Amino acid sequence: MNNWNRVVQGTEPRYSDLLHQDSVYGVATGYCISASLLTIINKWAIMKFPYPGALTALQYFTSVVGVLLCGQFNLIEHDPLNLVTMWRFLPAAIIFYMTLFTNSELLLHSNVDTFIVFRSAVPIFVAIGETLFLNRPWPSFKTWISLATILGGSLLYVLTDYQFTITAYSWAIAYLVSMSIDLVYIKHVVTTIGLNTWGLVLYNNLEALLLFPLELVIMGELQKLRHGSTEKPDWYTFPVVLPVGLSCLFGLAISFFGFSCRRRISATGFTVLGIVNKLLTVVINLVIWDKHSSFIGTLGLLICMFGGVMYQQSTRKKLKGVQKDKPQEQVGVQKKLQENEEAHKL
């Protein structure tokens, strides 16, 4: 009985809470590994196969086929497809498509460091968006300091970027806008639409894949593909197939772990997690090739990531207040249990 009282009073962790905590750490680790490696792999793939739209379409296709096949063999469970849910999910799919497309175009026209710096600036806009549209409290002063640190590091990088071009930074701004909207809006979608994680992966990638023909027409990539097929007949060789295939597999992995993380943490917290995991990306980028920034630029990049480490979720104080109220509720539960025991004795 004493052990049960300790559990009721909250002095011992509950088994379900420990499982939930392990689940959060597990999906966060999976997301960090996938995201860290995917940036490098996408840059590698885009160097060998310089067609951003086609590359992202292959990633969507792999994810859709992978989910459907695994569901067919009862390896996973996903929600069935229906037109009503597809219509409700369409805005999220469009935003997701724009995010991945601008991501690929940015990697095509710039280096990995530029991508990471603009990715690091996203939490500033996501924090504002969460407050305005998801009813989150405004960030604390310490949070604003960390976000300002991220912005300062970004500015230092931009001032020392020897590869600065209008085209690259135009795509960078487009990526910054679409990514900020994506993180806020999809956080709302995953908590309200009622799909499981694999269902979210299926709907998201299928609807994004259906948008690919529009990109072929609008961006003129169909002509580029036709022209490239006559000049570069090496698309089916191992040096091209390997990075493209890896990007598709890691695209499926990050879809699953990304949606799992979005369910468990806030939009801004998810954004900062995406920044911190780029440390591995920076190390790999510095080691494997020379397509990176100068020493000062790398310093600015590390300042951005340090700001991400400093970041604290603005809801932490609110959560502490909730936790203070829990012991009173638990005392009430304990009293009811004691009353029930006395009634049984009588």
UniProtKB/TrEMBL annotation:
Domain (Sugar phosphate transporter): residue spans on this chain: 36-311
Disordered as annotated region, ranges: 321-346
Keyword Transport assigned: yes
Topology term for the membrane: Multi-pass membrane protein
Keyword Signal: no
Regions of compositional bias (Basic and acidic residues) in chain numbering: 336-346
UniProt keyword list: Membrane, Transmembrane, Transmembrane helix, Transport
Pfam families according to UniProt: TPT
Cellular component GO terms, alphabetical: membrane
Protein name as annotated: Sugar phosphate transporter domain-containing protein
